[in-house]
Design brief:
This protein has 526 residues and is α/β, with parallel strands linked by helices. The protein has 23 helices and 13 strands. The longest helix is centred in the last third of the chain and has 17 residues.
């Protein structure tokens, strides 16, 4: 007899968010269930808290945290899944394989957020995916291989239940033998895969063909509690894959969630381990953090856990110095700039990394060589409007006093709209270009850090490629020469997000000017 999963029962919890308020009645109406025991609630996820006295037996499978509920009960309509993603799922199904959405996209659908991407997992092996279904796909990755499927301009990552990532020392006790008589083998397959994942809220499976969401590690519970918890013990999880530390920070920053105490402690203890992550992977994680509308909160979390000292040591030293005698960082120029940046972007409308790299280079230049506030405003206006005459016209009409930040800006403003102002703007552009070297040159980074006598000893990691640096320099090209002949596309047109995501230099320059000037509307115009 096949064992049923336990019905989601939310009646004993505190008042839920809107997306879960309908679960209790809908789950009991739609699912036939049987309880396997009481769940011990605590700070973390299902595997850690499900180890009761009976659960200590070798091979024991604790089913008390297993849940299944109807996706329609929480308002996930079929239209929430992009057409191209549906095509990937249907092609796998037509070949006789099961296919699910998995991970962060399921989490975001439950939270009524737009997913950054849609990941698929299937019962087909990677070899079968490539040989039988998507013959032009690419198998990428070594430790955690997946198939990268391109479908009419969209890219999807398709993983297999049969893939077994390399285990590390200390995690062998997490393997459970299959004491699964009477269990649905689909449940066992999904449950075992969920134990390999990073965080409970990322371990949800969604089968859109039968409208079922599967939860085996209390992921929905942790969503309710706004908690980021590892599936397995946090120290072991981060030793399996230290990049999980950065992914956890990214998720917490984007959702505004808190870490469980165990997860938080493990991040502090193991943060130096990210030095061993490949530089291209570090760049990818930083791009996810800073390009998708959560740059301010990401930098704040990186600073809190000491990771900013490793990844962006100059910004870490700046924040440490400026926070002396302060209770909040919100009035610091760096955080204001990042907050302005976030107003434009979201998970599904990101920017190219050259935009936030250019913003950091600009700010570094001001910290090292403070400028007149009028020069800063004129610099931003020139990038935004594209010509000197347009920038001057804007400055004449803008009678408001520019914001003064210490140490970045000198005030009150004494600069006039004359040739000397053009010279000062060109000098600032040259300083910004030099500051871009802090991303790729250890010597330049050391020189910039010399101003901070108590700066933390940095790790020696520079993860930005020479190609990315060249893109940043391209943003400010022409600003360090004769500005009377400087002509670039600008003005008051809307943002072309596709060009911006691609890294089009003119579009990046246009938006960077808006970010620096702070003249951003509350709404994102697309």
């Amino acid at each position: 007899m096949t064992a049923a999963r336990r019905c989601t029962d939310l009646s004993s919890l505190s008042p839920p968010p809107a997306f879960l308020s309908r679960l209790s009645s809908a789950a009991s109406r739609l699912l036939q269930t049987r309880q396997y025991g009481s769940r011990k609630e605590g700070d973390g996820g299902g595997l850690r808290n499900a180890r009761s006295s009976s659960g200590s037996r070798p091979g024991f499978i604790d089913r008390s945290s297993w849940r299944c509920f109807d996706s329609r009960a929480v308002g996930i309509p079929p239209g929430a899944i992009p057409v191209n993603c549906w095509s990937v799922l249907q092609m796998l199904k037509r070949k006789g394989f099961e296919a699910y959405l998995v991970g962060g996209c399921v989490r975001d659908l439950l939270l009524k957020r737009a997913p950054k991407d849609f990941d698929v997992i299937t019962t087909a092996s990677l070899r079968q995916i490539k040989k039988l279904v998507f013959k032009r796909c690419f198998i990428i990755g070594t430790r955690f291989p997946i198939c990268q499927v391109h479908m009419r301009g969209s890219t999807f990552e398709v993983s297999s239940f049969s893939t077994n990532p390399t285990q590390v020392k200390g995690s062998k006790d997490l393997n459970c033998s299959e004491e699964s008589d009477g269990d649905d083998q689909g449940d066992i397959l999904r449950w075992k895969n969920s134990l390999k994942r990073d965080f409970t809220i990322n371990s949800l499976f969604f089968n859109p063909f039968n409208n079922r969401v599967y939860d085996y590690v209390n992921g929905v519970m942790d969503l309710r509690k706004n908690k980021v918890c590892t599936v397995i013990p946090a120290h072991v999880s981060f030793k399996v894959d230290s990049a999980r530390i950065l992914r956890g920070l990214r998720v917490a920053a984007r959702l505004g969630f808190q870490f469980s105490s165990e997860t938080s402690t493990a991040i502090r203890d193991l943060s130096p381990s990210i030095i061993n992550i490949d530089k291209s992977r570090l760049m990818m994680e930083m791009r996810y953090m800073l390009s998708h509308g959560a740059a301010e909160s990401s930098i704040r979390l990186l600073s809190k856990y000491g990771l900013l000292d490793i990844l962006l040591p100059f910004q870490a030293a700046y924040l440490s110095d400026q926070m002396k005698g302060r209770s909040s960082d919100r009035d610091l120029m760096l955080m204001k700039l990042l907050a302005n940046l976030d107003k434009f972007f979201s998970a599904d409308w990101p920017c190219h990394s050259s935009l936030w790299l250019g913003l950091l280079a600009f700010h570094t230049a001001l910290v090292n060589s403070p400028q007149d506030a009028q020069v800063i405003k004129a610099f931003a206006a020139l990038m935004h409007f594209g010509t000197w005459d347009s920038a001057v016209e804007f400055l004449k009409q803008d009678v408001g006093a520019p914001a003064i930040f210490v140490p970045e800006a000198l005030g009150p403003s004494q600069a006039k709209l004359d040739d000397n102002l053009m010279k000062q703007i060109s000098q600032l552009a040259s300083l910004v270009n030099s500051s871009a070297d802090t991303f790729t040159s250890l010597d330049t980074l050391k020189q910039s850090l010399a101003r901070y006598s108590k700066a933390s000893q940095f790790s020696g990691v520079v993860f930005v490629s020479a190609k990315e640096r060249s893109r940043v320099l391209g943003i400010f090209k022409g600003l360090d020469s004769d500005l009377t002949s400087y002509v670039e596309t600008g003005g008051m047109h809307g943002i072309d997000y596709r060009l911006l995501d691609y890294g089009d230099t003119r579009e990046v320059r246009f938006v960077l000017g808006k970010v620096i000037s702070g003249r951003i509307t509350a709404c994102i115009h697309r």
